[in-house]
Amino acid sequence: MLGHLIHGEKTDWIARARKCLAQGDEKKFEKFDRFAQFEESKGKTMTQLLAEFRQARVANLKSLDEMNLTEADLESVGIHPSFGEVTLKQLLSTWVAHDLDHLIQISRVMAKQYYDEVGPWMRYMRVMQPLQRYEQQ
Questions:
Q1: Closest-CA residue to 78 (of 22, 14, 40)
Q2: Staple partner for 26: which of 14, 22, 90, 135, CB 3.0–4.6 Å?
Q3: How far is CA 108 from the centre of its chain?
Q4: How many CA atoms lie less than 13 Å away from 106 in the CB half-sphere?
Q5: CA 73 vs CA 8, 17, 24, 70, 77: distances in Å
Q6: How far is CA 103 from CA 30, 98, 117, in A?
Q7: Residues 6 or more apart in contact with residue 97 via CB below 8 angstroms
Q8: In Å, how far from its chain's centre is CA 109?
Q9: pTM for this one?
Q10: 67-102 tens-digit pLDDT
Q11: pLDDT digits (tens, 9 = 90+) for 4-42
């Protein structure tokens, strides 16, 4: 998962934010390679990956801050390869929600270690219950 987050930091969020602010054909997003992280992370330790993610995130937040975005900028449009037109505001909101989605995944994996031990409290442990949204699709 860290490799995925690192790859996104390097190729997705800020690169796409800049495309939203660009003109003409420059607005087209590159397709995100969902498998690139496997090769890029090969042979790296968890400590190395965490340091790489931290460095990339800090750099991206600095870049975002330096953009001095206005309300009008947030309505700027980029062209996503699957969705078509998306706004910068939607992209930046997705960046945050994407992180939160991965935190949910991490929490669920950690909680499952206690599946057999929580006993009767299981019915109150939403983190251990099936995700309804995904079951209905």
A1: 22
A2: 22
A3: 17
A4: 8
A5: 22, 10, 16, 5, 9
A6: 26, 9, 23
A7: none
A8: 18
A9: 0.84
A10: 999 999 999 999 999 999 999 999 999 999 999 999
A11: 999 899 999 999 999 999 987 799 998 887 878 787 888
| Rounded (10°) CA dihedral 8, 45, 104, 113 | 160
Q: How many helices (H) and strands (E) does the chain have?
A: 7, 2
CA distances, 25 to each of 14, 57, 87, 133 (Å): 17, 27, 16, 36
Q: What is the torsional sign of CA 54, 60, 66, 69?
A: negative
Q: What angle do CA 57, 97, 125 make, to 5 degrees?
A: 115
- Compute and round to an integer the Cα radius of gyration of the chain: 18
- Tokens for 53, please give them: 């993610």
Cα-to-chain-centroid distance, residue 82: 17
Superfamily for the 2-135 domain: dinb family like domain (1.20.120.450)
